[in-house]
């Protein structure tokens, strides 16, 4: 099968710094690719190029075989609708003046009140309740504003909103990093369940090797903007791992 996402020899520089240095990767249908590395490894820059928030210096990003590099106007807007991202800080994802119902339904309203195929059709509020059911939140959340919710609750609403438009690819950018340790595992279990249930293709970005291993069938390790290692989940502890990967494993085990 053709890859959902293909990145070819991507380069992005800031002054004399090569934040992304010749990265190539693919994500297959229904696959979650993990991208792991410490701060400054190039993870965030790679994500921004993938999401068309930054223009690479060279290389290409293809979504279902179509290049995203150089798109403008309506074509760029359309491509961004096929890419959805869940960021580290859920508070930044919402307008503090809007209720969760208004925020949750905004993407569907923009598309013409289209109901996602994986929930039963109904009124906008009924659809919103069904989306909250998928992320294990009560319907009472709909009438609350972001300041009235915990970080974990806001992140679950952000996940529901992202999946509602049935994107071609989802990007999870450190989605549990700002959450309490007691909540992180619950959110990861939720993401894994949704991925399996809906057949989501995804990129999962984190400095946390344990989270990446849990979520991803296959992972790459970034260091200094370059891929230094790539492996399937069951190969993490193989002798052939790069020395930098072994350092991350030691941090994970500690």
TrEMBL record:
SMART domains: AAA. CDD domains: ABC_NikE_OppD_transporters. It holds the Pfam family ABC_tran. The keyword ATP-binding applies. Residues 5-249 form the ABC transporter domain. InterPro entries: AAA+_ATPase, ABC_transp_ATP-bind, ABC_transporter-like_ATP-bd, ABC_transporter-like_CS. GO terms for molecular function: ATP binding. The keyword Transport applies. Keywords: ATP-binding, Nucleotide-binding, Transport. Signal peptide: none annotated. Belongs to the ABC transporter superfamily. This is Dipeptide/oligopeptide/nickel ABC transporter ATP-binding protein.
């Amino acid at each position: 099968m053709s890859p959902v996402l293909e990145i070819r020899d991507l380069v992005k520089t800031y002054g004399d710094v090569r934040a992304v240095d010749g990265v190539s990767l693919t994500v297959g249908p229904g696959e979650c690719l993990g991208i792991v590395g410490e701060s400054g490894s190039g993870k965030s820059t790679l994500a921004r190029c993938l999401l068309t928030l930054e223009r690479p210096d060279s290389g290409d990003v293809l979504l279902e075989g179509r290049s995203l590099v150089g798109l403008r106007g309506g074509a760029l807007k359309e491509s961004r609708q096929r890419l959805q991202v869940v960021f580290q800080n859920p508070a930044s994802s919402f307008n503090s003046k809007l209720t969760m119902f208004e925020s949750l339904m905004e993407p569907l309203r923009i598309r013409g009140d289209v109901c996602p195929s994986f929930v039963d059709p109904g009124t906008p509020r009924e659809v919103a309740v069904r989306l909250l059911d998928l992320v294990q939140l009560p319907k009472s959340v709909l009438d609350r504003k972001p300041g009235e919710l915990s970080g974990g609750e806001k992140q679950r609403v952000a996940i529901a909103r992202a999946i509602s438009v049935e994107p071609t690819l989802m990007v999870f950018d450190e989605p549990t990093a700002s959450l309490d340790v007691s909540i992180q595992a619950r959110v990861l279990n939720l993401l894994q369940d949704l991925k399996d249930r809906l057949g989501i293709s995804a990129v999962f970005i984190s400095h946390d090797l344990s989270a990446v291993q849990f979520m991803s069938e296959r992972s790459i390790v970034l260091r200094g903007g370059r891929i230094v290692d790539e492996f399937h989940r069951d190969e993490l502890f193989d002798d052939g791992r790069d020395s930098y990967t072994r350092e991350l494993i030691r941090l994970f085990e500690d």
